[in-house]
Design brief:
- The chain has about 375 residues and is α+β, with helices and mostly antiparallel strands.
- The protein has two domains: about 5-165, Beta-Lactamase; about 180-365, Nucleotide cyclase, GGDEF domain (Alpha-Beta Plaits), CATH 3.30.70.
- The chain has helices spanning about 5-15, 15-25, 30-45, 95-105, 135-165, 170-175, 200-205, 210-230, 255-280, 315-325, 325-330, 340, and strands spanning about 50-60, 65-70, 80-85, 110-115, 120-125, 185-195, 235-240, 240-245, 290-305, 305-315, 335, 350-355, 365.
- Strands 6, 7, 8, 9, 10, 11, 12 and 13 form an eight-stranded mixed beta sheet that branches. It has a five-stranded antiparallel beta sheet with strand order 3-2-1-5-4, sandwiched between helices.
- α2 runs parallel beside α5 and α8 (about 210-230) runs antiparallel to α9.
- The longest helix is centred in the middle third of the chain and has 35 residues, at about 135-165.
- The N and C termini lie far apart (about 75 Å).
């Protein structure tokens, strides 16, 4: 005669390898997507009938509220769905994407566990048939043991998302990989874009603080959005100014230079559209100047012994800043150095050689043609 207690004990013992993996190895998973797929595979190996699974985590991100990873047992693939935060890029319809996706499979009943705490990660499974009481017990046991590795992954993701938001993706990778102290840094070659608003002091003195912040945010949306659209990275917001880089990742700098030029054109078009909206609201238009230059820069930690800043310094950074100062006297929105102009076939207009404050050698200066050429994606 079969002993039901013995059957339950055997099944608990069968799950032991999964629990050992969750305790000893799961925290080293490359990410939540990998943990979901690996956990599903372990449960399948333990004999738990699974057709699919989903894992939803809250994330600290300016635009994204939640990430949901969806796993299919038949092929092991994992896809991701995003739930946007209020005020983000879109409404927030995807926060329960995992639950809806699991139910849409319609193979069997869904089992879900909130892991770790009442508002913690949501882990859900669906089988090819309704789960038995013993199988639900196994899934709940696995969820309890998954709480710790998920907390580790969430903390890691929080650190990474925070650094990405404040430093940019490439700079965040460099900070995470380098020692947390002053160091000589790394010399990289990059096309850089330096831009700032015109007459911002007057705007600040004559407008309520809320309007000033709204104007800054709108400006940063246009310039940073253009930089990111063409593969660049905003390195610094400096008051009303922006320092962005387009690192040279190939033997030729042409791709980086073309990207910087296209970003400048896109920013100019974006600001033209923004100013139409501002005039319709009886707000003053916003004008800006931008300078593009190609050269080497030192990229790394500087600062006090116990208070660091990750930044870029060097003659090339200084030249871009000084060149931007010529935009107003030359009556141009975008100026391009001779060093960058020599590495692109995009049409530019020569403005002659000009002396720059603090720069020993005069700089050949170019600008974008008027009217602007259509903006196209990089080839």
């Amino acid at each position: 005669m079969t002993n039901p207690e013995g059957v339950r004990h055997d099944r608990a013992m069968q799950l032991a390898p999964t629990l050992a993996w969750l305790v000893d190895v799961a925290s080293d998973s490359a990410g939540a997507d990998c943990l979901l797929a690996e956990l599903g595979a372990h449960l399948l190996a333990d004999g738990v009938p699974l057709a699919a699974g989903a894992l939803t985590l809250e994330v600290p991100h300016p635009l994204i509220a939640k990430r949901t990873w969806l796993w299919r047992a038949d092929g092991g693939q994992v896809i991701e769905a995003l739930g946007f935060a209020p005020g983000g890029l879109a409404p927030d319809p995807l926060n329960d994407a995992g639950r809806r996706w699991l139910r849409d499979i319609a193979l069997g009943e869904v089992h879900e566990d909130v892991v770790g705490r009442p508002d913690g990660p949501l882990l859900g499974w669906i089988g090819p048939r309704p789960f038995t009481a013993d199988e639900i017990k196994q899934l709940r046991q696995a969820a309890r043991f998954a709480a710790t590795p998920l907390a580790v992954l969430a903390a890691r993701a929080t650190l990474r998302e925070t650094l990405d938001a404040y430093l940019g993706k490439r700079s965040a990778e460099r900070v995470l990989a380098a020692p947390l102290r002053r160091d000589p840094g790394e010399t990289i070659r990059a096309a850089r874009l330096y831009a700032d608003l015109r007459n911002f002091t007057i705007l600040s003195d004559t407008s309520p603080p809320g309007e000033v912040i709204a104007a800054l945010d709108a400006w940063f949306d246009r310039i940073a959005g253009a930089v990111h659209a063409f593969g660049g990275e905003v390195l610094k917001f400096i008051g009303d100014g922006v320092l962005a880089i387009f690192p040279v990742l190939e033997s030729s700098p042409r791709r980086a230079c073309d990207a910087a030029l296209r970003a400048a054109s896109a920013a100019e078009a974006g600001m033209t559209y923004l100013n139409k909206e501002r005039r319709a609201q009886a707000l003053p238009p916003l004008s800006f100047g931008a300078a593009l230059h190609l050269g080497e820069m030192l990229w790394g930690n500087i600062g006090a012994a116990n208070r660091l800043d990750f930044t870029a310094i060097g003659p090339a950074v200084n030249l871009a800043s000084r060149l931007e100062g010529l935009c107003k006297p030359l009556g141009r929105t975008v100026l391009v150095s001779g060093a960058l102009a020599a590495e692109t076939d995009m049409p530019l207009v020569a403005l002659g050689s000009h002396s720059l404050r603090g720069i020993a050698t005069p700089c050949e200066v170019f600008t974008l043609p008027e009217p602007q050429a259509p903006i196209s994606q990089m080839g």
